[in-house]
Amino acid sequence: MRIAKEDVDVKLEIPGAVIRQRTDFGDATGLGKISCEYFSLSAGVDTIPLFQGLEGDLCQCPHWGYVLRGQLTTTDVDGAQETVNANDLFYWPPGHNVKVDADAEIVMFSPQREHSHVINHMIEKVKS
What we know:
Jelly Rolls; 128 residues; single chain; alpha+beta; 16% helix
């Protein structure tokens, strides 16, 4: 399946961040349906306030992805940090927050049900 970035639905757009999600992008045996996301993020974006209220105040969904440009740092439940840069492949296990160090664009593949829950939670946080 091929899909252009412009054809991926915008799920959330706030100052500094555009989150796109295409559901039903495939099936990863054992994980169920997956979605593909294309995030455009500005330096300084931090998920901590958006994830408050989720289990552990962290994203509990795993992600596999690729950094097209920029730099991001994840922090896990134990405080361990990892930085990914342009042209890096990454895996973020459940239990993380993300801070954007430099304007970034990333592509991620995630279990659809779990990540839709997180995205919907962020949408509600922005509304309140």
